[in-house]
Amino acid sequence: MDAQTLDYDFDEEGIGFGEPLTPEVDAPAGLSLGERGALTLVGLGALSLIVQWAGGPLAGTWVGFASSFGLMFVGGALTFWLASTGTSAGIRNDGTRFRSLFARGTAGWIAGILMTGFYVLLYWYPETLGHPTNGAEPTGLVRVVDPLARLMTNSPASQWFLYGVLYTGAIAVFGVRMLMKYRHNRYQQIRTLSVTFFQAVFAWFLPNLLLYFQKPYMEFNGVWPLKYDYLWPDKIGQLQEAGGLGIFLLFWAVVVALIATPVLTYLYGKRWYCSWVCGCGGLAETLGDPFRQLSSKSTGAWQLERVLIHAVLALVLLITAVVWSNHHFGYLGSWTEPLKQGYGFYIGAVFSGVVGVGFYPLLGNRVWCRFGCPQAAILGLIQRLFSRFRITTNGGQCISCGNCSTYCEMGIDVRAYAQRNENIVRSSCVGCGVCAAVCPRGVLRLENGPPGDRYENADKPLVALVQSLQSTEIHGYEPWKGCPSDSDPVRQSS
Amino acid sequence: MHVVILGNGVAGVSAALKLRELQPAWEITIVSGESKYHYSRPALMYIFMGHMRYQETKPFADSFWAQQRLELVRAWVTRIDTSEKKLELHGQAPLGYDQLLIATGSKSNKFGWPGQDLDGVQGLWSLQDLKLLYANAERARKAVIVGGGLIGIELAEMLHSRGIHVTFLVMESSYWNNILPDGESGMINREIRAHGIELRLETQLDHVVDDGTGRCRAVVTNHGDEIDCQIVGLTAGVSPNIAVLEGSDIEAGRGVLVDGNLRTSAPDVFAAGDCAEIRAKGDERNTIQQVWYTGKMQGEFAARGLAGKATGDYDSGIYFNSAKFLDLEYHTYGLVGRHIAGEENLYWEHPNGKHAVRIVYTDEGVIGLNTMGLRWRHEVCERWLRDRISVDEAVRRLEEPYFEPELYFRHEPFIRRAFSEALQQPTEGAL
Predict the structure, then answer these.
(1) Residue B347: in which H helix or E strand, if any?
(2) Residues A354-373: what's their mean pLDDT?
(3) What is the ipTM of this complex?
(4) Mean pLDDT, chain B cut into blocks of 10 residues (431 residues total)
(5) Is residue A351 domain-resident?
(6) From CA A231, how far away is CA A222, in angstroms rounded?
(7) How close is the nearest chain B Cα to the Cα of A337, in Å?
């Protein structure tokens, strides 16, 4: 043994490997002329927004709207577009684990606090954003989107209209980022176009059109129990009173929740909703994409996830049952109101909004979807038990590198399955397809197929459940299990 | 029974886990001086590039080892004493064993180039090398990589991602051309250059130039060109890491010599993975296998031997491998580029130069498959080769191994048309 080797005594666990210190390269620094121009647009838009928020001129005019949000959205989309031109298409996660914003550094914490703060203001102090009270005119930030609100809804802007503009704008702008980042990957491109379309049309344009005609508000891609009140008596009553259109909306809500959900999940897995249609999923897959590596892969997080998400599901089912029985029998009188409001406050606002989105830079982009969403829980149960969807693994090609697990936004330890050549049939998988995209060895593939052979090399749900209740022991490690060379004759002939 | 496994790479760890399964009660200790826990060696590059943190390259949670009752010892072994059945450890008390598995992996080749031991000159194999690269990258604006193999292109990609200008010296007339046929090799040449890495073919290292302080300043090639650089990456292949055998009576050749059961010349001592050299039966050459999956397979096979449950000789089955050359994924199965007597090749390449398929066949059927920028299913490829299906049948069944992500463009109709046309034309010399 040479002396240099014997000298090596490095605490890779404690010190680890951070960002290498490299000197500034001689090449002209990072940004091209076009990118600088695009970023200037964003800066000008932000400046205009601040001036208008502070009550400056142009607020409440079309010029004001275009010079603020308009410039920011166009500039942002252009920046992402130009940043990718001239580079070759492929997986570019260089530096992701070093950058403060994406590695829970100072910038990440600042972003998390700002985003969380915005949600707190939005939900509980909307007047600070300029939300009109007592029939007054909107002011501040809300006033900036007022012309668009009057055009789309024929009424003054509210804090929720502002939120809709920001939400849809974020999905569109960061959707451009996704389209460019994955311009070599048609699955990601089509999926991104899908979430952008459903947000823009189903969750934003059509609901505002309903408001324009003074009909009850409804997001067409919103499904009970994610939209918990869509099947509660109040909403249904409201819809029934709204004439023919209301009946259609009621019909739509029932069909989506009770028929489309099980049928489409059987055919395609929960991804048809979570990463193709859903608004929360849409934001997570676009604005949230840069934060996906922050989701915890620990066994503890997995255990918490299983308890929490099913607890929320049980809670919403219970409340729905209570409000309906009270609706018919009235034995609780108005006592169900605090129940409904409590769920709306703690689950609807705090969990899905403040924590779910505000904590993107701290806990990853799917906190709500993973730990809280009752719709995801239902879809997950169907996916685990009655679905054609699975992720298959490619023989012995896995090198256990861990890119798949690192970039799984749902915190699934994909590698644990891939290195054992097991199919991945997990209730939480939203089918975003990023594990397959980042795999450097082409090991993973999202597939729909006959449910019968789905559990090849994997545990059947009941067996897995019993095992997980019996012990906390991690699966035995059989890296070669099921690989073509080593599989038993019975399996080969079947 | 106390089994000690020397090395916590994929071979050692695969052996430990298989042995735990076969012998639930035995005491198993894994010794490594490199790292406390097993990590995925092929993922070293992703740590440097910032795709993953070191912790994420560990295939098992830290709590896993205690659950499996696998004891981990962080130490360098300085000598193996086969008569006393103990390992002498650097700075620690000796460790006794009843059975020993040597799984020490590989080390980077150095071919006696003048200046090869200067500061800033290094290979890329271990965590030590990665730590060294961190230090070397601090002062580097330019790097030269010597040797056009898999590690060379990874190191080039790593340094390039940090904004360091990379010059890549390749001895052959085209990248990895001793393994890859011209078509695939040419694609990679173009890929390397498209990324802005300077590729110099038919160029070898002559010597490394000292800056006067014991650190590299430049390299001089065999053509007499001097290239300024602050890092020299030596990636001209790897060879078995058998330094630990010094002072022991275990027989070694290029690697630790083992029989078909992976037993060494010493009693109760096995070897597996990159460091093992399997003695040939007849006139053939001894075998050294240095890929990821053979490390797994040899480790598991050795575990059966350690457990007293060995069956037959080690057989790695039909060869396969994969790699990613910058953005180009590559998979190979069976015999490609081996110039087998009577072999014919069908090769299709997409006009955009990003996708290719090669089928190698003889009169007896298909013997090898290559794909570039296309994902095919391992199981199907292996079945085709095992069954020796005819080339016509392979062309007919082109859709069967499809493993690309959903919604991707399908290339099979174009591949089939190209291959059918090629098959209809009588090949030169065939008649």
Answers:
(1) strand B344-349
(2) 95
(3) 0.95
(4) 98 98 97 97 97 96 95 96 97 97 96 96 96 93 94 97 95 96 97 97 97 97 97 96 95 96 97 97 88 96 95 92 97 95 96 96 97 97 97 97 96 97 72 42
(5) no
(6) 11
(7) 46
Interface contact flag, B140 A22, Cβ < 8 Å: yes
B165: chain A residues, CB-CB within 8 Å: 25
> Residue B321 phi/psi, 5° resolution?
-165, 170
pLDDT tens digit string along A284-343? Answer: 999 999 999 999 999 899 999 999 999 999 999 999 999 999 999 988 888 899 999 999
d(CA B426, nearest CA chain A) in Å:
35
**Side chain identity at residue B377, one-letter code:** R
Same domain, yes or no, for B28 and B65?
Answer: yes
Contacts of B399 (CB under 8 A, 6+ apart): B410, B412
What backbone torsions phi and psi does residue B14 show, to the nearest 5 degrees? -60, -40
Residue type, A293: Q
What are the distances in angstroms from CA B71 to CA A188, A314, A478?
43, 43, 19
Based on the structure, what is the number of domains in chain A? 2
CA-only gyration radius of chain B, Å: 23
Residues of A in contact with B137 (CB under 8 A): 20-22
Q: Count Cβ atoms within 10 A of the Cβ of residue A29 and give its class: 0-12 exposed, 13-18 middle, 19 or more buried.
A: exposed
Does A22 contact B163 at a Cβ distance shorter than 8 Å?
yes
Measured CA to CA, the distance from residue B193 to residue B179 in angstroms comes to 20
| Order of strands across the sheet that contains B27-32 | B70-74, B27-32, B2-6, B99-102, B269-271
Residue B4 contacts by C-beta under 8 Å, 6 or more apart in sequence?
B29, B30, B31, B87, B95, B97, B99, B100, B101
User: Which pair of tokens denotes residue A306?
Assistant: 């299983």
pLDDT of residue A25: 53
Over residues A104-127, the pLDDT tens digits come to: 999 999 999 999 999 999 999 999
pLDDT at A74 exceeding the cut of 60: yes
Beta-carbon contacts of residue A256 (< 8 Å; ≥ 6 apart): A223
Helix residue ranges, H only, A225-335: 233-240, 243-255, 261-268, 271-274, 279-286, 299-329
Interface touch A396/B378, C-beta < 8 Å: yes
Contacting residues of A for B316, CB less than 8 Å apart: 485
Tell me how close the Cα of B348 comes to any Cα of chain A, in angstroms. Answer: 20
- Residue A451's CATH number: 3.30.70.20
Boundary residue ending a domain (A257, A292, A327): A292
Residue B104 in 3-state DSSP?
coil
Report which of B198, B213, B212 is spatially closest to residue B168, judged by C-alpha positions: B198
Strand ranges inside B133-254, DSSP E: 142-146, 165-169, 198-200, 205-210, 216-221, 226-228, 231-234, 238-240
Q: Which is nearest to B191 in space by CA: A90, A367, A103?
A: A90
- B334-to-B154, B338, B340, B348 alpha-carbon distances in Å: 24, 10, 12, 18
B332 close to A (CB below 8 A): no
Q: Say whether the peptide bond before residue B240 is cis (omega within 30 degrees of 0).
A: no
Which two structure tokens, joined as six digits, stand for B13?
Answer: 């760890």
Rounded to an integer, what distance in angstroms lies between the CA atom of residue A9 and that of residue B34?
A: 8
Last residue of a domain, one of B218, B236, B254: B236
What residues does B402 pair with on adjacent strands? B376
Boundary of a domain, candidates A292, A311, A335: A292
- How many folded domains does chain B comprise? 3
The amino acid at residue B259 is D
Q: Is B330 exposed, middle or buried (0-12, 13-18, 19+ CB in 10 A)?
A: buried
